[in-house]
């Protein structure tokens, strides 16, 4: 390269480095300001995630960006990423305690991952938390004495037995579970306990640093008014509550969660039996291709028991899995007969049925794929 | 809320707004500087994606961030997103022409989406581009006269016929195709043309604004030395080239692409037949749950013919699809017998086989899910 150009390039890169350092300074300042906002929110008991203010702020920044010739999507994406950090940092400040007079919160299964997360959140909010784990049952009566809330957070296949095993709870105590199925545990809790009962399903893994924007499904059991404070507490942690009948929830979990896990399991078994060379497969990596592999492979980094539980815990899953096989066999027949026209006709039929959702799904996943491509690097 | 706190909150938010405006100013300055870098790269024919410089720069920023108490992953994520914009803006500047003396580039199927993208890239690099689309065959001889490169970019099931249909090409002309299968088109090109032949598979959709970091698979045909300039040109567009035998490429595409599309198709058929309420299903949205749905639904926003082609174009796919069904039936049997222990044992077996890849897939997809959660908003 010509020397003049090379010098010019170095000079420009130095200037870009300076801009990036200014960027770091701005970030530091912003995190500090957000920390101060967090302290006030904590005092006032305001939720850490304020969707309306956020939407208004992003809209304003987009407009300003457009005027300055900066792509509006760029500033929006950057601010959203920065806000993720802000939510996480609010965990350090703690949360307002909505119901300081309630008795101790007992987490049954509090040594598990999800139980630990909820213990932390309750403690950060100033509640007394007690753990009742596997080995603590001999002291159960003492641990549960005067309990204000009992949270059941044990593997699905133990949930009903654990609920049945509980001693009689104080009448005003709130009994709730965090299982990823809802009908059976809710029924078990209602028959066990005469007081307020509610089923919750936190729709996220236990490795989160913040509940901001995460969904918690709420299936009401009994005496809703007496656990409203608890729902409000969860909102303050940043979560969005979605109320639904337990049966509707369970059906949705079967259709998407259980069956997607089941077919991903089969795909893993398939790759193994076909002696796929994973290293080689990854060489052909495009973001979507990698993601398809990752959605299968990620399953097997997790707990066999957990997925066995999700798949085997509901009798209806078997019927769904049989129906899926019928569809598979129909599709295979088209492949055997080279019936491409039939395939295309059914494809278009399904596309009609998906309607606008197909476009929405494409655009949602498209954004993710762009961001996956951003994160790619290799020398 | 106490009035003092409310005022204090407003004051802090004003200051955050000021920081964000400064951020916009920095972004504008950075885009300008990157634009100047692009001009010099264009003059000098340097690739727009410089992985080593990028990695070194990110490492330095991470260190500086740590010293300032800014999370290093935050600055890395932000800079990666900003760089995406920089790549795209380099399209406006154009690219250096590596082989200005070559004859015209003829894109067979140049009116299609992928053909259009490659036409643009060649034109931005200063080449004469001619289009030979469906209706242009009567003038094929004139269009192909003196061609330096012929790019075949037509639907898979037409590729071989279109190659056969080509008139005899100038001996020094490079013949290449962009089909997503490689063995059959490569064989067809080698038997059609005596000169340099290469098969390419751009591993991305045609809707991209930049080739930066995207993978193009290269399957060598004949006279590699005589199309090296062309591979260099593609590198300048920002792509990463991955060389592989055509058979290896095709096998990978079957195992991942064709079979994932096929099973997603079956899943779409299944959801439809089970009368799933998509609107309701989306209410239970966690990032992973949404992504599972999106990976199925996105298929149906696309072209039935394209997916029919990918699935039906290779005879081996049928055998693979049958094997998959065998695995499905084995898994179903475990479900029928409530054999959770068997399921867990096989799960752990597959997990062992995935080895470290499972963790890698989990962490890759985990980052994507975090970014999906950033993009979520609702009032």
Automatic annotation (TrEMBL), chains A, B:
Location(s), subcellular: Cytoplasm
Annotated Gene3D superfamilies: 6-phosphogluconate dehydrogenase C-terminal like domain (1.10.3660.10), Chorismate mutase (1.20.59.10), NAD(P)-binding Rossmann-like Domain (3.40.50.720)
Main location, first listed in the record: cytoplasm
Pfam families: CM_2 (PF01817), PDH_C (PF20463), PDH_N (PF02153)
GO cellular component terms attached to this protein's record: cytoplasm
Transmembrane segments: none
The protein's annotated pathway: Metabolic intermediate biosynthesis; prephenate biosynthesis; prephenate from chorismate: step 1/1; Amino-acid biosynthesis; L-tyrosine biosynthesis; (4-hydroxyphenyl)pyruvate from prephenate (NAD(+) route): step 1/1
Keywords: Amino-acid biosynthesis, Aromatic amino acid biosynthesis, Coiled coil, Cytoplasm, Isomerase, NAD, Oxidoreductase, Tyrosine biosynthesis
Domain Prephenate/arogenate dehydrogenase, residue spans: 103-365
InterPro entries for the chain: 6-PGluconate_DH-like_C_sf (IPR008927), Chor_mut/prephenate_DH_T (IPR008244), Chorismate_II_sf (IPR036263), CM_dom_sf (IPR036979), CM_II_prokaryot (IPR002701), CM_T (IPR011277), NAD(P)-bd_dom_sf (IPR036291), PDH_C (IPR046825)
The Chorismate mutase domain, residue ranges: 3-94
Highest taxon of source: Bacteria
Residue ranges the record marks as coiled coil: 2-29
Biological process, per Gene Ontology: chorismate metabolic process; tyrosine biosynthetic process
Alphabetized SMART domains for the sequence: CM_2
This protein's name: T-protein
Biological source species: Ferrimonas sediminum
């Amino acid at each position: 390269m010509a020397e003049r150009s090379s010098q010019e390039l170095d000079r420009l890169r130095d200037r870009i480095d300076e801009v990036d350092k200014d960027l770091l300074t701005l970030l530091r300042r912003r995190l500090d300001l957000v920390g101060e906002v967090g302290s006030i929110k904590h005092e006032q008991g305001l939720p850490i995630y304020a969707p309306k203010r956020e939407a208004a702020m992003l809209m304003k920044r987009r407009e300003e960006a457009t005027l300055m010739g900066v792509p509006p999507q760029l500033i929006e994406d950057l601010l959203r990423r920065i806000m993720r950090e802000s939510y996480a940092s609010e965990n350090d400040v703690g949360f307002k305690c909505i119901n300081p007079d309630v008795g101790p919160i007992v987490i049954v299964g509090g040594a598990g991952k999800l139980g630990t997360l909820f213990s932390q959140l309750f403690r950060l909010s100033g509640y007394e938390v007690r753990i009742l784990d596997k080995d603590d049952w001999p002291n159960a009566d003492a641990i549960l004495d005067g309990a204000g809330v009992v949270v059941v957070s044990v593997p699905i296949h133990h949930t009903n037995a654990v609920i049945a095993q509980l001693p009689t709870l104080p009448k005003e105590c709130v009994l709730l579970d965090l299982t990823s199925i809802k009908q059976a545990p809710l029924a078990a809790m209602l028959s066990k306990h005469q007081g307020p009962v509610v089923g919750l399903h936190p729709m996220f893994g236990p490795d989160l640093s913040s509940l901001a924007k995460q969904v918690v499904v709420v299936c009401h059991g009994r005496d809703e008014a007496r656990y409203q404070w608890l729902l409000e507490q969860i909102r303050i942690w940043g979560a969005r509550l979605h109320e639904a009948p337990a049966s509707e929830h369970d059906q949705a979990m079967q259709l998407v969660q259980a069956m997607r896990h089941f077919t991903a399991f089969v795909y893993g078994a398939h790759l193994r039996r076909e002696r796929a060379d994973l290293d080689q497969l990854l060489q052909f990596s495009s973001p979507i291709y990698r993601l398809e592999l990752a959605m299968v492979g990620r399953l097997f980094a997790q707990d066999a028991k957990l997925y066995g539980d999700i798949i085997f815990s509901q009798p209806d899953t078997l019927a769904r899995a049989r129906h899926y096989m019928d569809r598979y066999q129909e599709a295979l027949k088209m492949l055997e007969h080279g019936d491409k026209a039939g395939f295309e006709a059914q494809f278009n039929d399904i596309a009609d049925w998906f309607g606008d959702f197909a476009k929405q799904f494409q655009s949602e996943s498209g954004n993710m794929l762009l961001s996956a491509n951003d994160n790619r690097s290799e020398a």
